[in-house]
Amino acid sequence: METRKTRVLIVDDSALVRRILSDCLSGEPDIEVVGAAADPYIARDMILELTPDVLTLDIEMPRMDGLTFLRKLMQHRPMPVIVISSLAQSSCEAAMRALEEGAIEALGKPSGPYSVGDLKKSLAQRIRAAAKARVRLPSRNATSARPANALAGALKPGSIIAIGASTGGTEAIRQVLEMLPENLPGTVITQHIPAGFSRAFSERLNQLCRMEVKEAADGDEVHPGRVLIAPGGLHMMLKRSSSGYRVTVRDGPRVCYQRPSVDVLFRSVAEEAGSHAVAALLTGMGGDGASGLSQIRQAGGSTIAQNEETCVVFGMPREAIRLGAAAQVLPLQQVAPAILRLVGA
Known about the structure:
- By secondary structure, the chain is of the alpha/beta class.
- Helices cover 34% and strands 21% of the residues.
- It has 2 domains: 127 residues, Response regulator (Rossmann fold), CATH 3.40.50; 184 residues, Rossmann fold (3-Layer(aba) Sandwich).
- Helix 4 links the parallel strand 4 and strand 5.
- The longest helix is centred in the middle third of the chain and has 15 residues.
- The radius of gyration is 20 Å and the shape is elongated.
């Protein structure tokens, strides 16, 4: 019996990009590009006619911008959407807004036939994950019930919070951080995200959250009230210093097909922070972070995995649970309260 192919509709005003994306997927036996639309009005009619499983969506288009179209789509016909955006700062910021509006993933747009690079390697993988993902409708009041503005009592000395995520993770991380107070312990986060998008992601979180959130730079100090996000395309590791903790940020081979890799971060947290660490592995495809979470637990740290029901994609947490790496398996809305309990003295 022949397996049904995942049906993809490409929406982009550039004929060149439409062709590149189609070519990237043409050799995939389980994926079929059923159409390509130059603007949202054409896409609307093609969606009704072709019933695609996954949409790739440009942000900047004539007649109707991608964000407006995405909002309408999520209201009337929710479906998995992968945003394909240029790396201009304004486009990256719009892509982050698109993830808030329900898009599953954001990828960098190729600028020509010779700059496809990593997109060709990852696009099919992302589409497969999106086809199986839980479409998350925008939830404006997801974090309306928030913990107090400050931790009651002292922090455990040397406490470090580490968080890892992939598909669906930008919104999961936002929801967790918005529920945490400004005086939380130093926090390090690896989210699978392309180079260029991580700065917009960090700046957006910095606007929404109580604590300082920034894209990490090599040598940045990790201290209470600060959250450091691994830059797209680079690994981030925790290092103990004379004054506490710092991060190193560097290039290197992909780990679990990822750079930045959650495993790279978590393993360094296990080695440098040990029992002082509280780590959470959130939604995402694949198995990155599961081994690192296991090492943190073996080192005496506290470990959490997001449960299946609240994950967009239950890949990484599932693997962590299979390895026995998660001491607690919690719905997303309970992750922040659990972190607060674990870091309190």
